[in-house]
Specification:
CATH superfamily of the largest domain: FAD/NAD(P)-binding domain
Number of strands: 20
Radius of gyration: 22 Å
Shape: globular
Distance between the termini: 36 Å
CATH topology of the largest domain: FAD/NAD(P)-binding domain
Helix content: 25-40%
Largest sheet: 9 strands, mixed
Bound molecules: flavin-adenine dinucleotide
Number of helices: 12
Number of domains: 2
């Protein structure tokens, strides 16, 4: 590593510059650091923000195995809770799927993403990892050359320039990695599901010991435990809705209506801690590489939250990328880097396929027209298959927990 200053911008070097300290960037950083690779993480946010940004909560069995394999699972082993059941509520009634005893017999571990990020961050810093908080990457330059670099702005506004051998774009869908891809370098496949959710985090104990999926003519509602004190809820809402247009009373009344509380029991109410509107969109970039720039996590592909796959794929891709970079930088073997995109994309498209299936399962189409009636009949039939067909239940379980 060398550090110098010329033409106003501080100049630094690292073998691998990682953009973004979310699950993808932090798993990658920890794995590289453990093998003595010279790396740095550039993160736009400050530490407090990273530790409080609530997003995912359901970790797949394979994600837990990856984190355990690298000694990164201590926190989730201590505080995470196993979860293996979901409940569907529709106009036809309700039924439960104990997916933990179906398919491959795997379970989720419920562990809030911000806790996982905090664990990974703490470990990386304790091991001496370099991390620049408040540093926004602006562009990846010369990715298709032997000397790629990253321009960034530090917390105090000063420009900084990082030279690297490789750049890992783990900075999400709106990050600098994606923006820096020249036209034609990768292809983006995109789907807008034309559905939006009001995502809520409530200071209220979970109301059922299962993930709750309610399909209602007024729209979807979802219930997901996070901790014994906090529950995530989703309410399908109009595209373009403002989260603030919903009073707490309206939120709880609407949740109770769509979750059919009158029939199946009341919801535990409490203050709404966070609310955000999420437009359900999916995309995939192909390939996940442009020269020395590699993409992982949401920067590589965006999964709508309907099937809770995004954070899990981010961890899987980070492990694959770390192994490939270590092979290259330690042993001079670049075969893993050459295969990285293809290996990830096989997982990405399977996760996209299941997410898409979930989107169609959970949302009723509005309106009296033929297309809406046709969609709703298919949706009812799909739910009925899931309720009655053992093989369909096994298929669901395998894809629901797997990545
Ligand atoms: P991120 O977590 O987005 O991290 C990217 C990091 O890059 C951020 O810290 C950001 O500050 C930083 N950054 C961005 N731009 C720059 C820049 N220019 N310079 C420097 N830093 C930058 N997934 C699941 O698997 N299970 C779930 O249950 C689930 N629930 C979800 C619920 C909601 C409401 C949402 C929105 C998402 C959910 N997801 C879920 C998806 C999951 O949260 C993401 O897929 C996951 O965060 C992706 O990790 P990442 O590291 O790729 O990106």
């Amino acid at each position: 590593m060398t550090e110098s200053r010329s033409s106003g911008a501080a100049q630094h070097t690292a073998d691998v510059v990682i953009l973004g300290a979310g699950p993808a960037g932090l798993v990658l950083g920890n794995l590289l650091l453990a093998r003595g690779i010279d790396c740095v993480l550039l993160e736009r946010a400050d530490r407090a923000h990273l530790g409080s940004r609530a997003r995912a909560g359901f970790l797949a069995a394979n994600t837990v195995r990856i984190l355990e394999r690298h000694g990164l699972a201590e926190g989730l082993r201590r505080r995470g809770r196993e979860h293996a059941s979901c409940e569907f509520r529709t106009e036809e009634g309700r039924f439960r799927l104990d997916y933990g005893s179906l398919g491959l017999g795997e379970r989720h571990t419920v562990y809030p993403q911000q806790d996982l990020v905090t664990d990974l961050l703490t470990r990386y810093l304790a091991d001496g990892g370099r991390l620049r908080f408040g540093t926004e990457a602006l562009a990846v330059l010369d990715a298709d050359s032997a000397r790629p670099s990253v321009t960034a702005r530090e917390a105090d506004g000063r420009p900084v320039h990082w030279r690297a051998r490789y750049v890992a774009g783990c900075d999400g869908r709106h990050g600098a990695a994606r923006r820096s891809l020249p036209p034609g370098a990768v292809r983006r496949y995109h789907r807008d599901h034309q559905v939006s959710w009001l995502g809520l985090l409530a200071e209220a104990p979970p109301s059922l010991d299962a993930v709750g999926y309610a399909v209602h003519e007024r729209g979807f509602a979802g219930h997901m435990a996070r901790t014994p004190e906090v529950t995530r809820y989703y309410l399908q809402c109009e595209r373009g809705s403002s989260p603030d247009a919903w009073s707490e009373e309206r939120i709880w009344d609407e949740l109770a209506l769509r979750m059919r509380s009158a029939d199946y029991g009341p919801l535990n109410r409490g203050p709404v801690l966070q609310r955000t509107v999420v437009d359900l969109e999916s995309d995939v970039l192909e390939p996940l590489r442009h020269g020395a720039l590699f993409l992982a996590g949401d920067a590589a592909s965006l999964l709508c939250p309907a099937a809770a796959k995004g954070a899990n794929l981010a961890v899987l891709e980070a492990e694959l990328l770390a192994a490939a970079l270590i092979d290259d930088l330690v042993r001079g073997d670049s075969a893993g880097l050459a295969r990285y995109s293809q290996r990830c994309l096989a997982h990405v498209w399977r996760a996209q396929e299941f997410s898409q299936w979930m989107v169609r399962l959970l949302h009723a189409a509005c309106g009296p027209d033929d297309a809406a009636l046709f969609h709703n009949s298919l949706r009812r039939s799909r739910i009925e298959s899931l309720r009655t067909s053992r093989s369909q239940q096994h298929w669901f379980a395998e894809h629901y927990v797997g990545v």
